[in-house]
Amino acid sequence: MKYAVVLFLITLMVSCNSNDADNNAPIQEPFDYSEINEQDINAYLTANDLVSLKTESGLHYIIENQGDGAKPSASSNVTVAYKGYFLNGTVFDESSAAGLDFGLNEVIKGWTEGIALFNEGGNGILLVPAHLGYGSFNYSSIPGGSVLVFDINLISVN
Fold it and tell me: What are the two backbone dihedrals, phi and then psi, of residue 16, each rounded to the nearest 5 degrees?
């Protein structure tokens, strides 16, 4: 019995020490990709012969058709058909033509700001720098620091 207690205490100490080692791992700090993203977006626009407008936050947008319906607010529920891809053209997400319903207060900042620039029935392109997307850390299949490009069709403001 004495040996069982000693073995238990040793096991407890070893497991506590291994947890302490994990807790002392360096914390990864966020990196500001704003300047790099801006250069990459400008190169993309030039290479594709596109002209965008830019908001104060750094979002680039191209309105191909403004639309003539209701204009959403940052808290509106909307139906949007979209295709999301990286600057190299690799698609990472796409809706059906019928679109998806969601609240603009439930999505990345670039969508909350960008989709509100269109009227119902409008379409265009959003070029979302990392600080308005998923930031400097990897998120699912999206590498940290990525510029995200979205072809947007605002079907309805619900």
Answer: -65, -40
Going by their DSSP bridges, the two strands 100-103 and 77-86 should be labelled as antiparallel
Give this prediction's pTM.
0.83
Give me 82's structure tokens: 């979209």
- How far is residue 86's CA from residue 40's CA, in Å, rounded to a whole number? 11
Q: What is the pLDDT of residues 115-140, one digit of tens each?
A: 999 999 999 999 999 999 999 999 99
Q: Rounded to an integer, what distance in angstroms lies between the CA atom of residue 149 and that of residue 39?
A: 15
| Burial zone of 16 (CB within 10 Å; 0-12 exposed, 13-18 middle, 19+ buried) | exposed
The label of the residue with tokens 């914390």 reads: 27
All domains of the chain in start order, with CATH: 31-157 (3.10.50.40)
> In what helix (H) or strand (E) does residue 123 lie, and over which residues does it extend?
strand 123-128
DSSP 150: E
Measured at the CA of 51, the angle between CA 61 and CA 108, to 5 degrees, comes to: 15
Two structure tokens written together for 147: 């510029």
